[in-house]
Amino acid sequence: MSERERAAVIRIAPGETVEDINMVIPKLEETIIVKGVLFYSDGNPVVEHGVNFEVTKTNDKVHGDARGKTDSTGHFTLRILKGLTGELSAEDSLWKSVYENCPKVVELIATSGNDYVTVKSNIVKLTADQDVYEVELTLPFPRCEKVKE
């Protein structure tokens, strides 16, 4: 019988005391912190955008992917389970006719042969054995104004 199958619901009312219960709280896994900034190719920060850590080496018991979002200055912070190995990056889907005056975006979409293309920043490979600061990710196109609807 697994531990989960032996679990029971415990209801304790205010002021009530319960005795002879052995509660075991699972240990929290250690994490490390990864801090960095996401830029466009022209050096402008990418605001309110996703950043991902995808595990490339793990065991079957751990799902260690981590997701985060940049703030108003392009900075992000992720917590990653200690000991995992993976890749840190950001990606964006670029659609035809969404950006104004942006030759690089037009070029990337045209090269794909579709009405859109998904592009990735540089990929930072890391093993989460200690905190990491000042990571820089860069999307392969400059900041462009979106077409106003």
Describe this structure in words.
- Strand 2 and strand 3 form a beta hairpin.
- With 149 residues, the chain is mainly beta.
- The strands form three sheets. A four-stranded antiparallel beta sheet has the order 3-2-5-8, with no helix packed on it. The protein has a three-stranded mixed beta sheet with strand order 4-1-9, with no helix packed on it. It has a two-stranded antiparallel ribbon with strand order 6-7.
- It has one domain (29-138): Carboxypeptidase-like, regulatory domain (Immunoglobulin-like, Sandwich).
- The mean pLDDT is 88.
- It has one helix at residues 103-112, and strands spanning 31-39, 50-57, 66-69, 75-81, 85-89, 91-95, 116-120, 124-127, 132-138.
Reconstruct the topology from this structure:
Elements: E1 31-39, E2 50-57, E3 66-69, E4 75-81, E5 85-89, E6 91-95, H1 103-112, E7 116-120, E8 124-127, E9 132-138
Parallel strand pairs: 1-9
Antiparallel strand pairs: 1-4, 2-3, 2-5, 5-8, 6-7
